[in-house]
Design a protein that fits this description.
The chain is of the alpha/beta class. Helix content is about 30%, strand content about 25%. Strands 5-10-12-13-14-11 form a six-stranded mixed sheet. It binds zinc ion (ZN).
């Protein structure tokens, strides 16, 4: 029997929670980690119609891309709106889980999925994720404490490079210090300059793990004041393909009209909006699903022939025109509705004994006539 947390873990293998933006609210929205799950309903948004569908289809869990709870709730009025939906969910023991900006930013996430659909190759993140930025941690330790520190580094996956783990470098040298009044030195005596044999230990770490790792090393480091440095590394050595948006290339350049038809076919859209002058041909394409207009100039700087996104506002279109980049607004819903297929594939690949269903009630809140 599977529990909800099994499904959450499978999704987070692809879309780790640390990739979510600080303002976001990903993960369990309502319900339970431990409830048994047999049927999962996948949707872009959690609406009352989708919850009614989940009840009809006897789903135990709804997995959505957009968080069900986003802004803080000050009251839960069960007569209407969100409160009514919350009551229905609790009455029917249906949990809701959302994978939002972590799914957007993940290497195997939504932007990569849409890029694959659009047959964009050689994909790189448009803005590589800070969360993956690598740092070099350098620790100075008395020689007899080195083994304990190496053990902590290894156990916490510091020094992971490609198919290698426990990658460290060390060199032994001489450290000096003078314990002042009020100190309790591990070696030496107060007011006398000490020279000790110390190891300089180096390992590459991800910035998200830095605080936790340094706390653990301090616990085994004998000095009252542990000396260490943390140096940022060139982001080109980032371990993963995580980041905001993607940029890549079409195998064969396409004419602008043909490219629009291609997008409409692949994303199943009736129409798209464009802004700026189309280039002669489209080869290099940037994409940011959802509301990506913040990255218009980033796409231009990275020499994209066009930028595909959603939710373009009028004055952002002006910026695009002034930046001389052709922007295709395929809509927020249009660029994200396929997220349900990605989430379905993640769950189906991980488990045989859970039924996944795509909502037939999900729809765009904006209609085109
Ligand atoms: Zn969105």
């Amino acid at each position: 029997m599977l529990a909800n947390h099994d499904i959450f873990s499978a999704i987070e293998q692809t879309a780790p929670r640390y990739l979510a933006e600080d303002w976001d609210n990903t993960g369990l929205q309502i319900g339970s980690y431990s409830n048994t799950v047999n049927r999962v309903l996948l949707t872009l948004d959690v609406t009352e119609a989708v919850v009614d569908e989940a009840i009809d289809k006897k789903a135990d869990l709804i997995v959505s891309h957009h968080p069900f709870l986003f802004k803080g709730l000050k009251s839960i009025n069960i007569d209407s709106g969100k409160g009514k939906v919350i009551q229905k969910l609790i009455d029917h023991r249906i949990s809701v889980y959302s994978a939002h900006t972590n799914l957007d930013a993940a290497g195997g996430g939504l932007n990569h999925y849409i890029a694959d659909l659009l047959e964009i190759k050689s994909i790189k993140p448009l803005v590589p994720s800070d969360a993956d930025r690598l740092y070099k941690l350098v620790i100075y330790s008395p020689v007899d404490a080195t083994d304990a520190i190496l053990k902590v580094l290894g156990e916490n996956r510091a020094g992971s490079l490609g198919n290698y783990s426990h990658c460290t470098f060390r060199v032994t040298g001489k450290g000096t210090f003078k314990p002042l009044t009020g100190s309790a030195p591990y070696i030496g005596t107060q007011d006398q300059i000490q020279t000790v044999s110390e190891d300089r230990i180096e390992a590459i770490i991800g910035i998200r793990s830095a605080d936790d790792l340094i706390t653990k090393i301090k616990a085994v480091h004998p000095y009252e004041q542990m000396a260490y440095d943390l140096f940022p590394m060139d982001q080109s050595v980032s371990r993963r393909q995580n980041g905001l948006g993607i940029i890549g290339e079409l195998e064969e350049a396409m004419m602008p009209d043909a490219f629009i038809t291609h997008i409409k076919n692949k994303l199943e859209l009736a129409a798209v909006r464009t802004t700026g002058n189309p280039p002669k041909q489209i080869k290099r394409v940037a994409l940011c699903t959802g509301s990506g207009s913040d990255f218009i100039t980033t796409a231009k700087v990275q020499k994209a022939d066009c930028f595909i996104t959603g939710d373009l506002k009028y004055h952002e279109a002006q910026t695009a025109e002034e930046s001389h980049i052709w922007v295709i607004d395929a809509g927020h819903y249009g660029t994200e509705k396929k997220a349900v297929f990605l989430l379905k594939a993640i769950i189906d690949n991980a488990f045989d004994d859970v039924e996944t269903m795509i909502s037939t009630k999900m729809r765009s809140f904006i209609e085109t006539h």
